[in-house]
Amino acid sequence: IVPTLRVGMHPVTLRVTQHRDAERPRRHSHAERGNDQLLSKMESFMSGFWNQAFDLTGRCAVITGGAAGIGLACAHLLVERGARVALLDRDPAVVHVAASLGDGHLGIAVDLGQIGQIQRTIDSVFEHFQRLDYLINSAGVVLLDKAIDVSESAWDTTLDINLKASFFVAQACARHMLAQGSGRIVNLASQAAVIGLDRHVAYCASKAAIVGMTKVLAMEWAPQINVNAISPTIVETALGKKAWAGEVGEKAKLQIPAGRFAQPEEIAGLALYLLSDAAQMITGANMVIDGGYSIQ
Q: What is the pLDDT of residues 243-284, one digit of tens each?
């Protein structure tokens, strides 16, 4: 249809011509093609960077408290990313737990409260793997009582496992890491390191000390070893679910802005990041993962 327009008494025919360029696809300029190629290279680089940063193939890790809970969640994730792991735990079942992860992993039943056993155990792990890249200090105990009633035995047990053992395991691992020129250490602290909790005086003291210890080790062992801490809120491990079941747990969740407790896999994910090459510039940090509880 050819449109017409009447001007006064005289119709005028309008002929609409389409520009020939509209019929053909638009050509990209040389600059635009260059930008597309650069973007493609950047995307490829970033994809390769992240894949390589979180590829733990050939790396070896020691995980204390590795038979269950956060330690076991960390073990599953590190194995999935290609690492070999040595699980240390006082529970003899740790041997079978390690075997369930597949070939090439170790499970060692050891009482970390016996300091004399620690260096020998770590040395045996190094002899088996011929390297030691990572340590996750996850073993710990919680003995609750009002401060006025805490016994010397409960105090000593809490500090011996949560603090003393963590230090001497880190020291034993660091001797090998420093000799090989690299390593990563993650210490499990707690939100109890930065806040006060009723009936947790020994536990709070031990976890606050872990954060302080982490900072000193990060200073002294840099640049070969990165040392960081993770401070979770209540974590829904098997023991956590039992301890915080029912009304007491529901009340605790109401105090957390996120409205829930943490999952072991979430703590493991943060540990993986801190162990990875993506976190090379992070050391001496205390990473709080508590759903916003401690910001109130």
A: 889 999 999 999 999 999 999 999 999 999 999 999 999 999
Distances (CA, A) of 48 to 79, 204, 281: 20, 41, 19
Angstrom CA distances, 173 to 92, 180, 221, 287, stand at 22, 11, 12, 22
CA–CA separation, 264 and 258 (whole Å): 16
Mean pLDDT of 215-241: 96
Q: DSSP 3-state assignment of 6? A: strand
Query: Is 249 within 8 Å of 293 (Cβ atoms)?
Result: no
Q: Which helix (H) or strand (E) holds 265?
A: helix 264-275
- For the cut 80, the answer to whether the pLDDT of residue 174 exceeds it is yes
- Catalytic residue (one of 134, 203, 273, 293): 203
Spatial CA neighbour of 62 closest among 208, 187, 161: 187
**Strand pairing category for 183-188 and 225-232:** parallel
Indicate the angle between helix axes 69-80 and 264-275, nearest 10 degrees: 50
250: phi then psi, degrees, rounded to nearest 5? -65, -40
- pTM (2 decimals)? 0.84
CA angle 75, 76, 80 (to 5 degrees): 115
Helix (H), strand (E), coil (C) string for 232-245: ECCECCHHHHHHCC
CA 68 to chain CA mean position, Å: 16
One-character DSSP codes across 164-198: IIHHHHHHHHHHHHHHHT-EEEEEE--GGGTS--T
- Helix, strand or coil, per DSSP, at residue 263: coil
Catalytic residue check, 203: yes
Q: How far is CA 237 from CA 19, 73, 145, 242, 261, in A?
A: 69, 9, 22, 8, 10
The residue length of the chain stands at 296
CA–CA dist 97, 232 (Å, integer): 24
